[in-house]
């Protein structure tokens, strides 16, 4: 079940919130009862992807639970075996679902890559002693299956929510903040990301038609796709964070405006932060990071980026995409070591935008011949000239969209709300006024999103009976 | 204020949830989209296991949400804010169009066996028995087969569908016509009338070119050049182009108007060597409020919200035809019928009651035994009424639905003229349909 679906916003969510608050009120905010309510709704939510998927989710949670239990009571030296066993089992299950599709007809349970990684981090944290006390199966299952983040992250660490599972507080402030975060996230997803996706499909078709578009079409199309990737993904995190905040969870931020980075290194510290940090903490550093010499560092980086590529998809282009970033990170390392002067910020921005934009192009096409055609056209060696009127017309039809979508990739709006909050704190503006403005924004964003979601079922009868 | 925020949020989603749960308010048919909306799925264990049961529930929930039409309209108003909309483009920016060869004008080969291509499921579905029969709704609405549209270009409040030449199809089409010609007795005349679209007729060549479309005149010349010399060619490109200052194509729909079809009829008469009736001889009627396929395909673009008017010319000899629907039901219906009560999207059905597998018209005022058969898709609908006053019998076959043999029909009824009225963007499936009739 997607968040950006009428069924979620106008059925699941209200029922959940009413039920949750009802349980809370009846039990006098007993956190265990609240957890139970959250768990039941989460399992129901996940079951919407099919009961088969739910079974897989339960099985992997049981595996991690048993692994964790075996380790937590064991001496440190005796933890290695259960660790290796549990991790291998979880990785094998993930790999099976990722690649079995090539041979047999089986589909990967939705969100599997995300929650397996959560469980891996749980097992590793128990191993290293970051998690000290025993975790109940119920709490571990909430950690895995909570509907806020089960489908698309953020990839949490158990300690991100462990405290909140024992005791959490929500009040009108967290509720109001959560609603604001959710509604603006929904707006970004429904009005901007989905539209960017539609434009990308027209301008940069992921089909044989790619051979008949001109260069400008590939340029604009790749920009649209870049916009879609960021806005879609980050808006999902916004909604997850907002939903959590509504009931007292505080999830870590997953995106920090990656497109304004000045280096690729910085980009990956701002993009899908929970995944980058996962690889940093559970792969790169355990492998020795940069502490074992230059050669080893490069090897470690290579492993991390191969895994990053593989995590994103099972086809070759994702591996190429991972290695693509590995190359740029190596170049940046060399640059930092050997070149002493600093480039102007503008050049750095242009460089980063160019690299991630090209990266998304590789990411988009699973079909190699489409990818090559797109790249050829991107670099002006296509067969359809620079532009066509259809392309300029499409750009013109969407000029305001581009402006807003690009602004959303920058911290402009966040700066505005932060300034307002700051001024309210300093009592330069009335707190009520700020709250009122936020409420207005939430309500407008929500209503506009609902209207667009309701219209999303519209199917103009393309193709084609004359 | 923060409590009000929460309260307001809950009020909105809860009241809209309640609205969504009032099942009788949910629509079940969409006129503009010409489709049944999603039904609540039937329960199945496999659907439960793979999740399709739940996916279908979600589809149903959104697809049939109450107030759907106003919400869609509202959504389009919001989406207009995305940019400047004096001209618009909907659909793909570019498609593969073949070069139209200049010189390759050898006669197309006779077909021994049809080229069978797998038809994509979508297309197949649309030809399915369920939807093909025009079915009268309670409000007099006739739901017809969905038609059009690929990439729609909108300028000056008119829609134009992009045309892309496909050489393989063009060759196959010409072969099909030549094959039919070779199969029929020599006293039967075959006419081929290719119908260009408004994209080729109304738009400047330069604009067509800059949009990446193919030139329809060249395409038609190419196809006609491949026809056997015994096939009579009714090339109506030039006459339509000459009259493109008139209302010969709809602005909101991909079809030509009755006036456009009249000019094709005029050209046909010239080719056949008979005198066409003058346009002023006909009694006319206007039906307002037509919002056709372009309007729907462009997500109800505001630029196209100004409806078309159908000006129709009523045949003089008779305005009654007899037709058989896909289910084999026989009924009499006006050739040009009153569509005032039809919904905005269905008014093109005013001509010969839309697309039916088989229709026949007898003009009691003509007694020369003359007869013709028209093999057509929907563009032929507006054309047929003009033939009524030149033949004692007119038979109309929609090749997409007719399952019988036209060869035997020709023999049985003693038909002397076979008239193909085909839209220029024919597909292989259509050509095979027509080939299968002979």
Give an overview of the whole structure:
By secondary structure, chain A is mainly α. Helix content of chain A is about 70%, strand content about 0%. Chain A has helices at about 5-25, 30-45, 50-70, 80-100, 110-130, 135-145, 160-165, 170-205, 215-245, 265-270, 275-285, 295-310, 315-340, 345-365, 370-380, 390-395, 400-410, 410-425, 430-455. Chain B is α/β, with parallel strands linked by helices. Chain B folds into two domains: about 1-80, no CATH class; about 120-435, no CATH class. Chain B is about 35% helix and about 20% strand. Chain B contains 16 helices and 17 strands. In chain B, strands 9-8-17-15-16-14-12-13 form an eight-stranded mixed β-sheet, with helices on both faces. In chain B, helix 7 (about 165-185) runs parallel beside helix 10 (about 215-225), helix 7 (about 165-185) runs parallel beside helix 16 (about 430-435) and helix 12 (about 260-270) packs across helix 14 (about 380-385). The longest helix of chain B has 20 residues, at about 1-20. The chains are: A mainly alpha (about 475), B alpha/beta (about 450). At the A-B interface, helix 1, helix 3, helix 8, helix 16 and helix 17 of A face helix 1, helix 2, helix 3, helix 4 and strand 3 of B.
Q: How many helical elements of chain A? A: 19
| CA(first)-CA(last) distance of chain A | 37 Å
Helix content of chain B: 25-40%
Total DSSP helices of chain B = 16
Per-chain topology:
The complex is a heterodimer of chains A (466) and B (438).
Chain A: H1 6-26, H2 31-47, H3 51-72, H4 80-99, H5 112-128, H6 137-145, H7 158-166, H8 172-203, H9 215-246, H10 264-270, H11 273-284, H12 294-312, H13 316-338, H14 345-364, H15 368-378, H16 389-397, H17 399-408, H18 412-425, H19 431-455
Helix pairs in contact in A: 1-2, 2-6, 3-4, 3-5, 3-6, 4-5, 8-9, 8-17, 8-19, 9-14, 11-12, 12-13, 13-14
Chain B: H1 2-21, E1 29-30, E2 35-36, H2 45-50, H3 52-63, H4 68-79, E3 88-90, H5 121-126, H6 129-132, E4 135-136, E5 142-143, E6 152-155, E7 158-161, H7 167-183, E8 189-195, H8 198-202, H9 205-210, H10 216-225, E9 232-234, H11 237-242, H12 258-272, E10 283-290, H13 293-297, E11 308-314, E12 320-324, E13 330-334, E14 358-362, E15 371-376, H14 379-387, E16 393-398, H15 406-413, E17 417-423, H16 428-436
Parallel strand pairs in B: 8-9, 8-17, 15-16, 15-17
Antiparallel strand pairs in B: 1-2, 3-6, 4-5, 6-7, 10-11, 12-13, 12-14, 14-16
Helix pairs in contact in B: 7-10, 7-16, 12-14
